User: Fold these one by one.
Assistant:
Number 1:
Amino acid sequence: MNSLERRFVVGLAATLLIVFGFLFWGAMAAVKSLSEANVLARLEHDAEALLAALWVNPNGQVKLREGRITPIYQQPLSGHYFLLTFDNRPPLRSRSLWDETLQVPPLAAGAASTFQAAGPQGQFLQYRSAGYEKGGLRFTLTVAEDLTPMLAHIHRFQVFALGLLALALLVIVSLQRYVLRRGFRALDRVRDEVSGVASGERQRLQALGPVEIAPLTTEINRLLTQLQLRLQRSRQALGNLAHALKGPLSLMTRDVDGLDLPATDRQRLAGRMERIRTLIERELKRARFAGEGGGQRFAPQRDIPELVDALTQIHRDRHLDISLATLPEGTLPFDHEDMLELLGNLLDNACKWANGRVHLQLSVQADKLHITVADDGPGVPEADRDELLHRGARLDEQESGHGLGLAIVNDLVGDHGGSLDLQRSAGLGGLEVRVVLPLPAHGV
Amino acid sequence: MRLLLVEDDTELAAGIAADLRREGFAVDVVSNGIDAEYLGREQIFDAVILDLGLPGKPGLEVLKAWRDAGLPTPVLILTARDAWSERVLGLRSGADDYLGKPFHFEELLARLQSLLRRSTGRASAELLVGGLRLDEERQRVCREDGVEIELTGTEFRLLRYLMTHTDRVLSKSRLTEHVYEGDQDRDSNVLEVYIRRLRDKIGRERIETRRGQGYLYRSKS
């Protein structure tokens, strides 16, 4: 997933690793060279002290004045050693060397060299070797110090520094992640509200979010308002058109009803009027459908009881029992008016034909809304069902608008990409209309 | 029975009013929402036929104002705005029935009569009180002995009002209000003349005179 947070954290960690790596490498190099310089300086001082302690006794033997030598050179294998080698005399060794010796090449007077090499008992020594000439005596003086304690120190420091850096890395990354999450929390609200808009729970966004995305949310709000206004306006305009058309049509219907004409002529005229009426009704209703992305969403538990109340009132004299199966909770992603039109027509039809009972069932299964409306009326013979749906035919002239209602429902179902089918109700015995509407997919 | 017809299309209003008068109703016609609200509050109408798209004040607001003021008069909404969402809204705002335009007058009449029956507490379509049967379609009254008596328009309206409001003292002014339309002559002497004529036709004992109060129609002879 393309997550901003993940990208930021990975980037930050990589940057810190590189910076810390350089820092660590630099610090370690500095520590090591400092310590080595320190050791070399001490060796040089020791060498000078040894030179000062050096004397030739009356027998011509080369001796060191014991009191002037640092005691550490007397302790066996203490890690501090010296060695004096002569051209024609036996060498002089520090007592600390015990029975070991140091392998050092002789150097000419004035020459000096420093190097590191293995020493006795697995020690690792820093050597300082220099050639001298004192009172006609030529010799090479080598002083050496064991580096292993210092190296162990450096190693411990290394481990400590590494731990410290790792801890710093962890703290910085988690701190930044926390800061980032806090920043994103503002976006979380916006995201929740956007999905609220998609599911129809809200009409616009309340939270605009931080300045970086405020232009985006403001624009979304503007578009939402525009969309709702447009739907409202076009519905209003259609309402006005319906009003304007139906007034004269009502007058004409009245005129035709009152004409003193032969029955056949009157029927023909009435038939034509009826066709005009049906056409206007159907097309105007169709134009009002919001389809996807409509205005207010359909909330079954709020809208259906209101509709059933209205139907009960309209068909009050018939004393019908309109029963409801459990309704889905919350809102469904369909337009409130579309669904009222669909259910209103289906239920009204059922009420007109029912003897006493109408049943409505509404359920969501596998991303589809299933609607079943059944009545205990006479039903519709199989042969007539197709015609009923497609031509808006009225099978019974006494029940005004009967077929028209179903034809409008059929149009609506078609607009939503759903299906409608008619059959005999197994439970109630009358007509059963089944509508299946796919739930429109929404982004969140 | 006196009806208030609120309809802004004057031609259609005149047509419906004429049809309703032929069926024996007194009809007052109003073409805007403001007058409609004012007149409706007078409580002199037995039912209101209300269009929704009105100039001045929208029909739904007029209806809500009436209901908020506790006006019990049955209201039938007659409108071109017949989407189901609008029907639900109309009925929830206090309408008693809803009819979409265009319509056949017979359907309007049938619904109106059922509305009036309900508001006067009658269960059956037939008006049968104390042995007298009123034939609303032919505007005649049928006595127990099977004799049918022709009635004039005003006599029919008066008798129907009396028969739907039995065993109650009805003042002259109330009777006048429910029998005559707005601009007709309201002379109470004329009412007395009609009462006398009715008594001649259906029997003197059925309509009692309460001096200074009005008239009373007995449901039991």
Number 2:
Amino acid sequence: MASQRAIAVHEVRPLSEGRMHVRFELACGCVIERELASDRLIPTEDGPLLVGKYPCPVGHPLVRV
Amino acid sequence: MTEELSPKTERIVAARQRLRERCEARLQATPALADEAPQGTGPANRHGMPRLPPGQHEAKGWPVLDLGIKPQIALEDFRLELAGACSAPQTLDFAGLSALPVVEDQSDFHCVTTWSKYDLRWRGVRFIDVASLAQPADEATHVFVSASDGYTTNLPLVEALKGDVLLAFEVEGEPLAREHGGPVRMITPQLYAWKGAKWISKIEFLTADRRGFWEERGYSNTAHPWREDRYAK
């Protein structure tokens, strides 16, 4: 199953210290939710960047962005 | 007065010299050292490339990325197997690894997931010194690196022999934390960071390339940050 980069962060909800619940869009267009370490969200001039590679739930091939 | 070297050290020094002579020209021709028009922004880094590779963002924190498993390896249980196309295959424990010349180096870290971290202060041993122990065959062209979490990655031998490629066991003056690959991880400052395995457990010298975990899943086999070489062609 291909792992995709995140291209947009739709919602972030802090959990316990150092953790967050995130709803985000993968490069293939799928929107998924994950509980992740807070440091995966990096502020940039273009807005928050969610780093990491995440398996597409329906198995879309790797999208190169 | 010249200090006498032990026969073992003499063999390592001679093997390192042979490796350097064999690979130096190709090493100097690699993209991170030889690109005449590299992409990226900022002043030149110490090897002449723009400090921030294209598409990267500077991160103040240090995100933790892995396959979802963070092996707990006590220092006394650490083992590093050196295998494949080499004349002295062997397994090192931490004492054996850290008996090699220990170096400190400050380098940048570029993750394919578009964040970079500047000026990390590492302490460890150079890959070339570890390779010199194993004495790669003249036919060896690539290395295949395995980790205790099941992760694998591959890179050309000439990239691995660069002086800033370390098997690191300290960062920022502290033992390398488990989440960052401790007790020992490899770093490859001139390639995207996935080429440096956390929780390193095996280095295999190859006479032909073999793709690792991400390389088999659509990511670049070559991974040059200043060419934004993230994905397989």
